[in-house]
Amino acid sequence: MSLFHPTRRDILRMAGAMPALTLPALANAELGAPSLSDPTLTNPSHFRFTLGSAKLTVVSDGHLATPTTGLGVNADPAEVQAFLTRHFLSPTTNYSHTNHLLIELGDAKILVDVGSGDRFLDTAGRLMSNLETAGIDASDITHVVITHAHPDHIWGVRDDFDEAIIPDAQYLIGGAERDYWMQDGLLTSAPAEAQQFIAGAQNSINVDGADWQLLSNDQEIAPGVRVIDTPGHTPGHMAVVVESDGQQLIALGDSMNHAWMNFAHPDWVNGFDMDGDMTAATRMRLLDMAATDQMAVLGYHFPFPGVGHVLKDSDAYHFVPAMWQW
Q1: Residue 23 exposure: Cα atoms within 13 Å on the Cβ side
Q2: CATH of domain 45-67+95-321
C-alpha cells in the first residue's frame, strides 16, 4: 500500500497557502474564526466534564490544517472528495483539532500527550498556555502518558532549555512504541522524507529530566486509568482507558483521527497510518468495543471537545457527540 508521507516543509507550505477554513461557497455556511481584532470574541480552550468520580478536562493545543490528499489514501480519491463534501467538510483542507485529556482521579493528575510545542505547525503548541487559562498548574500533574511519538503528540515534551516540560511528572510510553523509534539504524535507513519525524521522536524520548516508564497492554497507570494496545497508526500506539463508578471512556489518540470518515469507512486509512491493515483492524475492534460496552470516546483530532459515543446501526458505525452541559 502506497501511503502519503509529507515532509514538515510540505505541510507548512500547503497549510500556509490555504485559508484557515475552506468551505464550498454554494453548499455550506461560511463559518470563520473569531476576529483577532476583537479580544472579546474568543472560543473556549478547555472543556470540563465528569465520568463517575473522575474529573476530566479537555485542553486544546490548537489546530492543524493539512491537505485532504492524506485522507483515505487507499480509496478512490473522487469517492473521498464526495464523502467530505457530503459531510459539509472542505474537499481540500483537513482542519483538525488537538484535544488533550487531563484526568483527575484519586491522587493522580494524568495528562495524555504533550502536544507540538513550538517545533511543528504554528497553529498548534498552545497546550501549556491553555492549561494555565483553565486554572491548571502544570507542576501538579503527576503523570504524562504518550499515546505515540508523532510530532503533534510528543514534540512539546521539551522546554526552551531542552529539558522535560513538566519536570516532576512521571513520563510513560508504550514499550513497543519506544523500541520502534529508538531502534538502531532507523534514522539512517529511513527515506529522507521520514528522517525529520524520526529525529524529532528520538530527541523527544531522549529529553533531559524524563525517566520513562515503559507500558504494556492493559497496564494500570493509576487506579482507574490503564492503557490498551491500539497499533497501526504507529507500531506501538496506545489508547488510554478511564473507568470510574462503572463508566468508561477511551482517549483514542490517533487510532481514530477523523470523526466521520473513520466511522463510516474504518478501512480507509490515512497517509500517516504506518500500517494500513493493522490500523483498520484496530479501528474495527475499538468501534465494536465502544459500542458494545457503551464506552465514551475522546478523539484527539475530533471537533473540540471531541467527546462522544459510538452508535452501531446494523453494520455501520456513527460518532454521536456528547451533549454539552453547563
Answers
A1: 14
A2: 3.60.15.10
Beta-carbon-side half-sphere exposure of residue 223 (alpha carbons within 13 Å): 7
Residues 6+ apart with CB under 8 A from 87: 260
Print pLDDT tens along the chain (326 aa): 334 344 444 444 433 333 333 333 334 555 666 655 565 667 889 999 999 999 999 999 999 999 999 999 999 999 999 999 999 999 999 999 999 999 999 999 999 999 999 989 899 999 999 999 999 999 999 999 999 999 999 999 999 999 999 999 999 999 999 999 999 999 999 999 899 999 999 999 999 999 999 999 999 999 999 999 999 999 999 999 999 999 999 999 999 999 999 999 999 999 999 999 999 999 999 999 999 999 999 999 999 999 999 999 998 999 999 988 87
Model pTM? 0.89
Residues 6+ apart with CB under 8 A from 229: 174, 176, 217, 236, 237, 238
Measure the CA–CA gap between 260 and 308, rounded to whole angstroms.
12
From CA 110, how far away is CA 102, in angstroms rounded?
A: 6
Length of the chain counted residue by residue: 326
